[in-house]
Request: fold
Amino acid sequence: MDLDVFVTTHHAEWNRLDQLLGRGRRLTGAEVDELVALYQHTATHLSLLQSTTPDPALIARLTQLVARARSTVTGTRRASWRDAAHFLTAGFPAAVYRSRRWWIPSALLSIAVAAAIGWWIASHPEVQASIGASADLREMTRPGGQYETYYSSHPAASFAAQVWTNNAQAAAMCLVLGAFLCVPVLWILFINMLNLGVGIGLMSSAGRLDTFLGLVLPHGLLELTAVFVAAGTGLRLGWTLIDPGPRTRRAAMAQEGRAALGMAIGLALVLFVSGLIEGFVTPSGLPTWARITIGIAAEAAFLLYVYVWGGRAARAGEQGDVEHADRSAELPTAA
Reply:
């Protein structure tokens, strides 16, 4: 492309668009139609320049012009309670449902790894000795030891807030770091499963695995599911960078990134619920069966929410992305 010829040919359109935008709302019907047409033409010009001509000054000018025109043509839209309701009833569960082919295998493989680590530690005394001194391990696993008192070591409200913050950070890291070709997400998953496996192995070697599971399952079912969903979404985001499919890599990463951001907000709410269970139910005086029943009920409610509401919304075309009007305009690409 000859840049000078291109600018000479189209600069009158750009100037006219700038002039119309400067008049605000004092436009006739014909001028509004002209503004829309000029906005569409200028957006096309910007796309062509971005793909063929590295002229930062010209691209910056047209980017600003297109942004102003888009704001004028589409109007500014403020978030409302309707948006929040749509996100909770359709956007978030649909995003979780769409990523199920990533987070379900992640969950199954992670649980298998934790179980394998637990079996390895429980059946090999020399591995236990490498973890800590015998006296320290007995102190951790005895009745009333550190594994049991951990959940009641702080007031329930502050403990729930601390747990929620830590888990939300872990989930956010999975979502954000997925863009780095998936590797950090796999490491975060492994560290979480290693900690779980150590607990399983040590308590099992002390003959108290039932006590450990009675403490972990009430909150752990929902908590780990949220972590697995975050990890699966992060892995999907990383794979999108490797294989964007029929979309351009930029468009694919933008779409999946927006969905991941919404996922972070939704999972923060899920982890808030699991934090409440861990802070108030796990250390409570309820029988073990009652605490586990509460955890199973919370997990079942989340899965029904995802597969019923999310599945219905996904089949209707919901992708967990922002509203179409809030997305950046994109030109069609050849298949």
